[in-house]
Design brief:
With 790 residues, the chain is α/β, with parallel strands linked by helices. It has 23 helices and 25 strands.
């Protein structure tokens, strides 16, 4: 790896990426990954990683299990060679992995990504996959169903083996042979069934000797009775091996014929595994895609070094190359200066590799042809180089190599020698590199470089903040602010005597004291502004929360108002429905009374009752129509005058009404039959509606009513159309209800059954029919329907 990249620890990032890869070839891609300065290539890499990240977030991660390099077996198969069971299984596992990957992508329907060309390169071969796994059970076993011939051979082997065992079991359990056997067992030698016989009884058991025990006391004899059967088994096993070889060769030929498509699918799977490994790494780092440019502009927002603990690392904001091309970072040791410039370099390299970076969204990264660094102590004993010499050697190399497409990062520029000469050399190196057009960040302790950055356009100071009160760095990087040395303050906090510190201040030149004083004032001003900014941010955030809360309360109140209106409307509808039911019951009761009383009294009573009920229903109908009132309600309305008894008003959430009584700020109002007390704020004055002139009453004298008509319990509908029959049926049921009849008989005839069906459907829907049935024998059978009224 490029030494500069290794110094910035890119190799450790690639090791993390390698761990996220599943297959070996993808791991090799991670090992071989090189940063690219090609703008199009970098954008393509980043888009692929971001699309993989999005797919994982929406649909979960795909599986790459079983994806293995099978190029060599495929090449041999394509050339006509036979593969063994292990190689064919590897091809099967790879085909399964490719198919699983393709099916996962098909579930992500409707999403177009920059990875589609890789998924499109996958060809699913379910035929070959199923054939391999149906024929090969493991690396040592072929399935019986691999071919009919193999199944037949194995069936015969099992039958022969069972026959041999049966004979030998009978032999070892017979009284004649038991005394000759060392043990009553059947075993195998050289693939043939034998029994262990005592050496001295070798001649008593006819057969072939296949082996002798190590002690010589036992000989293993194949009884003569099973020799032929064992020979048959041996022949069948030979045929079995030949059939297995034929099956493997056939499978190898099939795999070879699909070699090109399988290799293309495997290569696409490896590339996808590599891209999704980048996405997994981005997820672990909580990384985002940066905005890429080629103009040398770097603007990192809340960036973290990816190798630091994410929970403990302090995010930093770093800008470089926009308003200035050189950043001089000062601050105490262990304050984070080196980590800051390493973060710049490493995040740039990660972007050029197509990796998302651990920084906030909308961060900017520039691409560079060269990234040159001098970081760390590289003292060399072999080359007799001191730390200073080693650094100078690196800087000379950087100056010779750098150009206007280079990013230069130098740690402790000019350190390791006389401070005066080192500072002068550091300024000279910066000016030389700037003249070559580089973008540069350097760390230093020299006050001269702080002053140089203040006076030179295009160069700015940065510092790693240090808390003097706690004597510890905050690890925050402040751009545009030079760092203070803090040596005197730290010494004083640690308990050094005041006279020693004062003497040190006198020894330090007046220019340096003045400069430190200016820095101290700048730091105080910055902290004050920072505190004011935080206060303003808190106030703004609080205002936004209050505004959101107010809007939420307003929306809730509006929703509550709508809910109350709907509830009132539903309640009113229930009241009206109940009133209508009660009025219907009352009318029926009235008709009953009418039959019992004289005709004149009953008619007059019915007329008065109907009038009262009609008025009540009209008033209740007004209660369920508050929508118009709600829409016209003015929430900023103020009463134009003091209300008085008798005023017509609109009552909030109720409707129109009239004032009956005023008592303090509570008003008794009437709306229809409803009386209630409301607040002044819940009413609006309105004009009374002029009453329509009452038409002159005309006296109508009735001599009869429906109750007077003769009502029978039977209705004959034969010969009528369906429409006529249903109309007459409705009138008939109403008359029967008014006259208190409980059961009726409807004659519709048998015929085609259309009239019977229509009558049954009407009775099923009618609200006043409790039950109905067809007539029984003697009642008219299916030509009659009997109904019971409620």
């Amino acid at each position: 790896m490029n030494k500069n990249y290794e110094t910035l620890e890119l190799d450790k990032i690639l090791a993390l990426l390698k761990d996220e890869c599943t297959c070996d070839d993808a791991k090799e891609l991670a090992d071989a990954l090189e940063p690219s300065s090609d703008f199009v290539e970098v954008c393509t890499r980043l888009n692929q990683t971001e699309d993989a990240f999005s797919l994982i977030a929406r649909f979960g991660a795909p599986s790459f299990s079983g994806l293995r390099n099978i190029n060599n077996p495929l090449a041999r198969a394509n050339a006509g060679g036979a593969l063994n069971q292990r190689e064919l299984l590897r091809i099967g596992y790879t085909l399964r992995s490719i198919r699983t990957l393709y099916e996962w992508r098909s579930h992500c329907s409707g999403v177009s990504t920059s990875l589609d060309y890789l998924f499109d390169a996958i060809t699913v071969n379910k035929y070959l996959e199923d054939k391999i796994f149906s024929c090969i059970l493991s690396e040592d076993e072929i399935a019986d169903k691999a071919s009919e011939l193999l199944s037949d051979i194995r069936r015969k082997i099992r039958a022969k083996t069972a026959s041999v065992r049966e004979k030998m079991d009978a032999m070892i359990h017979s009284a004649h042979y038991t005394k000759f056997l060392q043990e009553p067992i059947v075993t195998q030698r050289n693939g043939r069934f034998v029994v262990p016989v005592k050496a001295e009884h070798r001649a008593d058991v006819p057969g072939l000797v296949h082996d002798t025990s190590s002690s010589g006391a036992t000989v293993f004899i194949e009884p003569i009775s099973v020799v032929e059967a064992n020979n048959d088994i041996k022949l069948l096993e030979g045929r079995e091996r030949e059939e297995i070889q034929r099956i493997l060769f056939e499978l190898s030929s099939e795999a070879g014929s699909f070699a090109t498509a399988i290799r293309a699918g495997y290569d696409a799977g490896v590339q996808l595994n590599f891209v999704f490994a980048k996405a997994h790494l981005a997820y672990k780092m909580k990384a985002n895609k940066p905005i890429v440019n080629y103009d040398g502009e770097i603007n990192l927002k809340r960036a973290r070094h990816p190798l630091l603990d994410r929970e403990k690392a302090v995010p930093v904001d770093i800008s470089l190359g926009e308003d200035f091309d050189t950043l001089v970072i000062t601050g105490p040791n262990t304050g984070g200066k080196t980590v800051s410039i390493k973060t710049i370099g490493l995040l740039t390299l990660m972007t050029m590799c197509g990796l998302l970076i651990p920084a906030s969204d909308r961060s900017k990264i520039s691409l560079f042809e060269k990234i040159l660094v001098d970081i760390g102590d590289e003292q060399s004993i072999d080359q007799s180089l001191s730390t200073f010499s080693s650094h100078i050697t690196n800087i000379i190399r950087i100056i010779e190599t750098a150009d206007n497409s280079s990013l230069v990062l130098i740690d402790e520029l000019g350190a390791g020698t006389d401070p005066v000469e080192g500072a002068a050399l550091a300024v000279s190196v910066i000016e030389k590199l700037r003249s070559q057009g580089v973008i540069m960040a350097a760390t230093t302790h020299y006050a001269e470089l702080k002053a140089y950055a203040l006076d030179t356009p295009g160069v700015t100071n940065g510092c790693c903040e240090f808390d003097v009160e706690t004597l510890s760095p905050t690890y925050r990087l402040l751009i545009g602010v030079p760092g203070r040395s803090n040596a005197f303050a730290i010494s004083q906090r640690l308990g050094m005597s005041e006279d020693v510190i004062e003497n040190a201040r006198r020894i330090v030149g007046s220019d340096n004291r003045d400069f430190e004083a200016v820095l101290e004032k700048l730091e105080a001003t910055r902290q004050a502004l920072e505190a004011e900014r935080k206060t303003a941010e808190l106030a703004t955030e609080k205002a936004k929360k209050l505004q959101a809360k107010a809007q939420s309360e307003r929306d809730r109140a509006e929703q509550l108002r709508k809910n109350e209106l709907e509830k009132a409307k539903r309640d009113a509808e229930k009241l009206i429905a109940q009133a209508k039911r009660q009025s219907a019951e009352f009318l029926l009761e009235l008709e009953k009374i009418k039959r019992e009383q004289t005709a004149s009294n009953a008619t007059e009573l019915a007329r008065k009752t109907r009038r009262v009920i009609k008025n009540q229903l009209g008033e209740m109908d007004d209660l369920i129509n508050p929508q118009e009132i709600a829409e016209n309600w003015d929430y900023d309305y103020k009463l134009p005058r003091e209300p008085k008894v008798g005023d017509a008003v609109i009552i909030r959430n109720i409707g129109e009404g009239e004032i009956l009584e005023i008592k303090n700020d509570r008003i008794l109002v009437k709306s229809g039959m409803l009386k209630t007390r409301v607040k002044l704020s819940d009413i609006m004055l309105t004009e009374k509606k002029s009453k329509k002139p009452t038409p002159p009453q005309r006296h109508v004298y009735r001599t009869s009513s429906r109750a007077d008509a003769d009502v029978t319990t039977e209705l004959d509908l034969r010969g009528q159309t369906v429409e006529e029959a249903l109309a007459n049926l409705g009138i008939f049921i109403d008359k029967c209800l008014l006259n208190g009849i409980a059961e009726v008989r409807i004659i519709h005839g048998k015929g085609t059954g259309a009239l019977r069906t229509a009558v049954s459907e009407e009775l099923r829907r009618h609200p006043n029919i409790a039950e109905y049935r067809l007539g029984k024998w003697g009642e008219g059978d299916n030509g009659v329907t009997v109904a019971v009224l409620k």
